[in-house]
Structure formats: C-alpha cells, structure tokens
Amino acid sequence: MPVEFLGIAATNDGSETTPRSGASFDKEYTLRLARAHEDHGWDRVLFAYGSGSPDPAQAAAYVASRLDRLQILLAHRPNVSCPTFAAKTFATLDRISDGRLTVHFITGGNDHEQRREGDTLTKDERYARTREYIRIVKKIWTTREPFDHEGEYYRFHDFVSDVFPVQQPRPNVSFGGSSPAAYAAGGAEADIYCLWGEPLAKTAEQIEAVKAAAKAAGRTDVPRIQVAFRPIIAPTEELAWEKAHRTVDAIKARKARGESVTGRHNGRARPENTGSQRLIAIAEAGERHDRALWTPTAAVTGGAGNSNALVGTPETVAQALLDYYDLGVDIFSARGYDLLDDAIDFGRYVIPIVREEVAKRDAERAARGTRNLAAVNG
Ligand SMILES: Cc1cc2nc3c(=O)[nH]c(=O)nc-3n(C[C@H](O)[C@H](O)[C@H](O)COP(=O)(O)O)c2cc1C
Questions:
Q1: What residues contact 160, with CB distance under 8 A and at least 6 apart?
Q2: From 16, 117, 190, 289, which residue has the greatest number of CB atoms within 10 Å?
Q3: Is 51 inside any structural domain?
Q4: Where is this region: Disordered (predicted)?
Q5: Ligand 1 binding pocket mutation candidate from 79, 106, 127, 134 (most atoms within 8 A of CB)
Q6: From ligand 1's centre to the CA of 214, what distance in Å?
Q7: Apex 21 CA angle, 20 and 27, nearest 5
Q8: Cα 29–34–35 angle (5° rounding)?
Q9: Under a CB-based contact definition with an 8 Å cutoff, are residues 252 and 300 in contact?
Q10: Kind of pairing, strands 192-196 and 224-233?
Q11: How does pLDDT run across 206-264, given as a tens digit for each residue?
Q12: Which secondary structure element, helix H or strand E, spans residue 59, and what is its range?
C-alpha cells in the first residue's frame, strides 16, 4: 500500500522552541508553509483546532483556493457546531478544494479547554456525542431526501442539504484518541485512526485495540492507521543529536522565562487525556526507544500532543518510519520545530527514501503473492 505524509498547516511561525513573530493568523506565512509542503512531496496538511485559534475551516478554504494538489485535513470539534451546519461547511470546502478534504473529528481531551467554549460534558460523554455527530454528518453527505433525527445529543426535523461533497460517496473521516471510549467511537466510525508516536510495541497494542473496536462495531474493514512524530534530522547522527538537545534546551529556556510553549497546560498539570498520559509514562520509562524514538521533547511539554521525536540522519529516520510501516501504519504525520525549513528538509531528504523503500517492499510482497498462488495452482 502506498504511504502518505501529513504535515502541519500552521497559521503562524510559532512552535514550542520559538515564539511567533507576527499575528496568530499570518496570511502570507500560512500560504508559504502550505506551498512548501505541496512543493516538497507531502500529500496533506492538518488545520488544527484550538479554542482561541483562527478558524481552521476558513484557513483551509484559503489555502485550497491557492494551491492545486495539496490535500486538506480539517480538525473540527463537535461542541462548536450543529452537525447540519458542519456537514454543509465540509461539503462546501470539498467543492472549493475539488475533492481534497478529509475531516478530523476532535472530541477534546481537556475539560478546561472544552469549557472555554461552553462544553460541560465529561470526556466519555463527549466521545458518545462525537460518534452520533459523525454518523449524522455522513448521512447528510449521502442523503438526497429530507430526514428527521432523534438522538441522544441531537434532534432535528426535515433536513436535507443542498450542497454535496465532490468525493463520492463522501470524504474520509479521521479520528484520534487513546482511551477505551476513543477506540470504541473511532473504531466504529473512522476511515483513518490517528495515534501519537509511541514505541513500536505500544503502537502495535494500540493498532490491535482499534482493530478489535472496529470488529466489535460490526465492521468488516479496519481504519487505516496514522502515526505522528517530530523528526529532528541532520546530515550526521552526531549533528542530529546535537540539534535534538538544542531543541529541548530551547523549550526549557522558554518555560523558565514563563512563556507558554504549547498553548495548553505547558507541561505543569497532569494531562487528562489518555494519549498524553501514555506519552509521559513512556518518557519516564526511558529517553530512547527502538531505532530513533526520543522522548525528552514529550517529557518537557507534558506529552502535549504530537511530541515524541525521531532523531538521526534522513536515512535513520526513514528506516524508523519503515519499522512502523511494517506494523501496518501507512500515514505518517510529521512536523519539526522550525515549521517551514523542517517541512522542506523532511520533504527533500526523508519522504523520497520512505516512498522508494515502500515501493520495494510492496513489489516484493506482490511477487511473493504471485509465487504462492503459482505454487497452489501448480
Ligand atoms: C493526530 C491527532 C490530532 C489531534 N488534533 C487535535 C486538535 O487539532 N485539537 C484538539 O483539541 N485536539 C486534537 N487531538 C486530540 C484528540 O482529538 C482527542 O480529543 C484526545 O486525544 C482525547 O484523548 P484520549 O487519549 O483520552 O482519548 C488530536 C489527536 C490526534 C491523535
């Protein structure tokens, strides 16, 4: 199976190591960063969601109208919208982008952040609501007749949309989370299940949990798996490790100055979401895992989202990604700490190696399949 690469569609140049140099929505930078991804072999970029952040749907529409190939992953939190309205937003965006939209449904892993926009449900209730919401959005995308809905969280009558996605039967649904409630909801509804980068054995456990949830929901297929890392690459191993330590030192220095480095709990309070708790536990178990996974970047940010690094030369980092491909991962999410330059470097030096090796592996697998078939038939 071919691999895909997901980058970040940030709307400014800030990262954990560097405060942003301008406005939160820097129109020129937003387009420059997205274009760098399009020009350097990436497939798709994520427009993330935060309670105070610029509206990702409009940023995505802007980028889609300026670029021709880059696909869009739009993060969306159900608590901020009615599903009938959201389904039309998504369908319109799929039209603007000529069929390049995937929607990443965010349940929300932190009560305080959810309350900022008036959401008072518990996390498990939020997952149940997300599940109902996704089912409604899928139905609106694919139903030409008016229908009623009487659910636990939503009720409406006689609704039919007048705008439908370009992609048929519908755009893909992406989903993330590492708690049992997340596996249940995403296993049932997601086309793509997103995990944060963990050691291989722990990633394999999570993949099994997602597959089991999909089966329990009565599915005959399974979601594709995406895993996210923060690559730190340099021409030699030594230089890459120096860069890795410089990265963590820069984050620590910002924290020491009292700056917010993650826009969230800043690594102080214990995170409420299972995914971040897992990252902290993995960091406590050791700094280095497998071929190139390095956890101090997660430890220093309190396991804030995609935060485990892969450190080494492009060859080492590519081989590390291929280890995950061999587990069944076929979408890699990656972003550096210098968003623009790192997107260019990763696209130039890592993506081509991974694509070439995956093509070789797939060709060998196909040849083995043909030989086995010949043996059975012969
Ligand atoms: C790849 C990925 C991207 C995510 N993007 C966002 C985001 O943009 N905004 C947000 O608030 N949460 C985001 N999340 C958080 C999840 O949607 C979810 O709310 C959280 O991980 C739930 O925690 P759990 O591990 O306890 O199930 C993301 C999660 C993953 C795995």
A1: 140, 143, 144, 145, 146, 147
A2: 190
A3: yes
A4: 254-274
A5: 106
A6: 19
A7: 90
A8: 95
A9: yes
A10: parallel
A11: 999 999 999 999 999 999 999 999 999 999 999 999 999 999 999 999 999 999 898 65
A12: helix 56-66
Question: How far is residue 290 CA from its own chain's centroid?
Answer: 22
Nearest-CA residue for ligand 1 atom 5 is 48
Residue of 4, 44, 79, 104 to test ligand 1 pocket, by largest number of atoms within 8 Å of CB = 104
Q: Cα–Cα distance between 304 and 27 in angstroms, integer?
A: 26
Tokens for 187?
């296993």
For 49, phi and psi rounded to 5 degrees?
-120, 135
Residues of the chain with pLDDT under 70: 263-268, 378
C-beta separation of 255 from 15 below 8 A: no
Length of the chain measured in residues: 378
What residue owns the CA closest to ligand 1's atom 2? 176
How far apart are the CA of 322 and the centre of ligand 1, in A? 24
Please, what is the angle between helix 56-66 and helix 27-39, to 10°?
A: 60
Specify if 105 maps to a domain.
yes
The ligand 1 site (C-beta within 6 Å) comprises: 48-49, 75, 106-109, 176-179, 182, 194, 196, 228, 273-275, 333
**What is d(CA 176, CA 226) in angstroms, rounded to the nearest whole number?**
9
- Number of domains present in the structure of the chain: 1
Residue nearest to atom 8 of ligand 1 (CA): 48
Query: How far from 56 is each of 98, 134, 178, 188, CA to CA, in Å?
Result: 18, 18, 24, 26
Range of the domain at 191: 4-229+310-352
Residue 1: what pLDDT? 81
Q: pLDDT tens-digit profile of 259-288?
A: 989 865 544 578 999 999 999 999 999 999
Tell me the angle at which helices 200-216 and 314-327 cross, rounded to the nearest 10 degrees: 30
Take residue 118 and report the two structure tokens written for it. 């008036």
Closest ligand 1 atom, residue 56 Cα: 8
Neighbours of 163 (CB within 10 A): 14
Domain assignment of residue 361, yes or no: no
Cα(236) to centroid of ligand 1, in Å?
33
Euclidean distance between CA atoms 127 and 131, whole angstroms: 6
To which residue do tokens 């940023």 refer? Answer: 59
Q: What is the pLDDT of residue 358?
A: 97
Tokens of 364: 């060998």
